[in-house]
Amino acid sequence: MTWEELNEIQPVVLQMLANSITRDRVAHAYLFEGERGTRKKDIAVLFAKSLLCDQPVNGIACGKCNNCKRIDNQNHPDVHVVEPDGLSIKKDQIRALQSEFSKTGVESKQKIYIVSHADKMTPNAANSLLKFLEEPSSETTAILMTEQVHRILPTIISRCQVVSFQPLPKELIKDRLISEGINPGMAALTASLTNNYQEAFELSSEDWFAQARIIVLKLYEVLRKSPFQAMITLQEDFNEHFKEKHQIDRALDLLLLIYKDLLYIQIDKGDKLVYPDKKQDWESDALQVSTNSLSGKMTAVLEAKRKLNANMNTQLLLEQLVLKLQG
């Protein structure tokens, strides 16, 4: 992605990194932390390009010089990327990295190392990396990336400049999905479920998810119009489609968003709806239910999600939830 595209997503991060280059205050180690899909790796690569670029402009890589192109093609000898080997990053991988650190740059004085999923380092690997970070070199820059900063050794964190990546703006994801031909209603819904554009796109194009939306909407309608039929709907439609725990969790998210939409209608924020095609149908519903009642229903769904992750019997959990939502 270009600087302009990434700047729409993480403007604060990019400005901070550009300033560190123009002011010659580049740290010896950075820890990029943030949720999946927040473009940490894209920005790590862009930062590497900016550090080695032949013609940077205000600390930003030109994207056209030989160094920029070679980094884009993953064949620059002074830029090294470490990925998990299987489920973890092994000590031998860090040792190989340390060996490279000890060498002079092949084509420049500077060497850059990007460690993806740094939280997946084994204890031995983490301790090996820590030894390197304790003796920083002015000619090397390390970029560690993680989605789970709490799993990084505090001693490693203390030796890095932590850069926090914000979740992607939902409007940005929604607009991009619509530009790719996704129905606006589906785009709004999937953008509310994930901060990852690729995941949102896959959900929007998935038959299972489209059917999931229909079934959850049906459950809501049954609860509203004929609550005694809700258990039947649960047995015949819901349980047949949502069989795995992660699928049930997704269904609960879809249900929660319905009640949030009703709340948005009540406070005249129809532009925030994730089921925009249902606005006209739900306007009367929103008028007939109190804010306290909506809050109670949302709390019930959130409590069901918590119990689901605590391994409660799923059938019992769902039946209890339906009874609470009837009230």
Automatic annotation (TrEMBL):
Superkingdom classification of source: Bacteria
Species in which this protein is naturally found: Bacillus salacetis
Keywords of this entry: DNA replication, DNA-directed DNA polymerase, Nucleotidyltransferase, Transferase
Protein name, per record: DNA polymerase III subunit delta'
InterPro entries, per database record: DNA_pol_HolB, DNA_pol_III_delta_C, DNA_Rep/Repair_Clamp_Loader, P-loop_NTPase
Gene Ontology annotations for the cellular component aspect, listed alphabetically: DNA polymerase III complex
GO MF terms, alphabetically ordered: 3'-5' exonuclease activity; DNA binding; DNA-directed DNA polymerase activity
NCBIfam families for this protein: holB, PRK08058.1
Keyword Transferase attributed: yes
Domain DNA polymerase III delta subunit C-terminal: from-to ranges: 244-325
One BP term from GO: DNA-templated DNA replication
Reaction(s) this enzyme catalyzes, per UniProt: DNA(n) + a 2'-deoxyribonucleoside 5'-triphosphate = DNA(n+1) + diphosphate
